[in-house]
Amino acid sequence: QxxxxxxxxxxxxxxxxxxxxxxxxxxxxxxxxxxxxxxxxQRELVAIISRRGTTNYLESVKGRFTISRDNAKNTWYLQMxxxxxxxxxxxxxxxxQYSATHYWGQGTLVTVSS
Length: 114
Known about the structure:
The protein has strands at residues 2-5, 8-11, 16-22, 29-37, 44-50, 55-57, 65-70, 75-80, 89-97, 102-104, 108-113. It has 114 residues and is mostly beta strands.
């Protein structure tokens, strides 16, 4: 019900843009976010945006990543610039409805080579 796309292989310093589209059956989304999980590590919140546009970022990505959303399309994005090898992970999109129900995308792999 959440379809993530945009991952891939990029050199350090490069950019990628992730997209996540929610199916029409998912409505009343309050928060849209991106998480990531690197091998051997716990999943962590990378960025989140509220319906009103309030954003919050993982400290290590501030100034490099930008989250945005298109409410009309039920779609959100993660623009990732100045990528570092430590950004390598599987990125998951997440949606939280006003009812507090969570939805997860299937994950998209981002690999940053040094």
